Amino acid sequence: MLGMCDRRSRKRISFDNNNNDDDDDYDDDDASEINYTSLGNRMFIMQFGGPTEGQVRHIDNMVPNVQICTYMSARCPSTIVYAVDDNNHDNHGEEDGLSSLPVTDGTSLIQFWERQHHQQQQPLQHQKVPHLLKKNLLLHGNTKLKSKWYTKYFASQNWNTLNSQLSCFGKLYQPVTHQLGFYETKPGTTLLAGGNEIHAGPPTKESRMFAFAIGIPEDKGSSSIENNADGADGDGGEEVNDGEVQYSPVLFHIDFCCLLFSMFDQLATEEEEVRTAKHFLVRVLIDLIRDYPMREYLVQIDEERVGVRRWMEDVLTVMEEGRRSSSLLVMDDLVDEAVGSDEILYSPDVIKRRLKKKKRRNVRSSKAK
Fold it and tell me: Nearest 5°: CA angle at 243, between 208 and 345?
């Protein structure tokens, strides 16, 4: 496995050198070979029987490490790796220079949503990106989440800032253009994928067996990207990006909403402005769920987050009922419910704090009577 990592590094250097010989700005120092010296998160995975559905596409927090899969069963389908592009073209069919830019921070996320609005590719994008949402992404994208009581829950979940999390998982918002994978591999075939690539386990027709590991570069055993640079608890500790922190588009946007809803409540004063921004984000969530509706989301959401799990179950039920006019009306009601709720799209600690305040107010009110 480590030998395959080194081969990948050498071939990438050779490719870069061959394609940049005439580039005066190209720096050979940037193309230094990476030596992979250890493995992490080693697993032997066996899946019995079939057929099975494939995974929803997702990203593992893994840079600067790489994923390694050595397939061991006959006719074993490989992991699927996706490329993204939001098809950004002007009216003449020419690219406007932003077509393949990944979403990596608040600014690029706003640009992506605005391009989608311009193209009107989805019902959601008939709305413009609300001013309050833009303001919070631009002004507070680099604010340490551990510094505020209403965002520190996500600091404990390995979020550093909004922008650092988008740098890792922001591509999940973008539609995929094509996928790379093999329907059948021979035993011994080893495939590698770079960190933070969009990928998914494939659908299968029969049993599947493979070995999985993380390739860790030399002297990077305790490295971390910006997302974890300060440690989750702020004590300066660092974590290896072994892929255990992962998000699908739906689950990432749920947490993104929980953060932004709390920020809107604390930093904005205009009630209608807050409602408009929340409504936009919930419509994004509905579109992401519709793109890949599955009840496995309910298992993947923490048990303590009762409100969002119940709401998600209702949304999935309505989607399963199809496009009947009554279902569409119910979906609108569910959007309004999430926008107006104090429990659905908020982190558990914020919900508990609000309940305590509500109880204290009720006690004072009853005493006054």
Answer: 110
